[in-house]
Write a structure and sequence with these properties.
Number of helices: 0
Number of strands: 13
Oligomer: single chain
Shape: globular
Order of helices and strands: EEEEEEEEEEEEE
């Protein structure tokens, strides 16, 4: 792994180049996900994005489920480098932090799945830090996770063909 423009910033968390994370396991990831539902229970929309820097990959998903049984699913991935890890996109999907801790823009552009959306997510309560999860079996780390959760409101539009 080489040095990148990110190594010129003061955002390191390890005394190593920016593209090295705290553990070399290929499953290490940095992820976010969002859920939205219609107040009347007629629709559930889920989507998320994750970077796996040890694999040089990112992936995103979008799903819509309707109360009448119809559903749509979309998965997309792309190669990433240290220089473009901050671009939270995969295929026609994009996640943009408009204002830290205040607003996210979540987009799904035209694609073969037939689902599209553009939404703004705004928190309605402070973030909750969940207890870390760390599981080892015979000295091998099986799970090493830390989660933050936050409820919010979503506005915008969605289209399902």
């Amino acid at each position: 792994m080489g040095y990148s423009a990110a190594d010129e910033s003061f955002t390191h968390q390890l005394p190593r180049p920016f593209d090295e994370v705290h553990h070399p396991d290929g499953s290490w990831s940095d992820r976010c996900y969002f859920f939205a539902h219609a107040p009347d229970g007629s629709l559930l929309l889920t989507n998320g994005y994750g970077n796996n820097p040890n694999q040089g990959r990112s992936a995103g998903y979008g799903k819509v489920a309707m109360a009448d049984g119809r559903h749509w699913d979309l998965l997309a991935s792309r190669r990433i480098t240290t220089d473009d890890q901050s671009d939270l996109s995969a295929g026609p999907m994009r996640w943009t932090c408009v204002e830290p801790l205040k607003q996210w823009k979540i987009e799904l552009g035209p694609n073969a799945s037939g689902i599209e959306w553009e939404m703004l997510y705004e928190p309605r309560a402070p973030m909750w830090e969940m207890l870390p999860m760390h599981v080892e079996v015979d000295g091998q780390v099986i799970v090493d996770m830390y989660h933050m959760k936050e409820t919010g409101r979503v506005s915008g539009w969605r289209r399902c063909r």
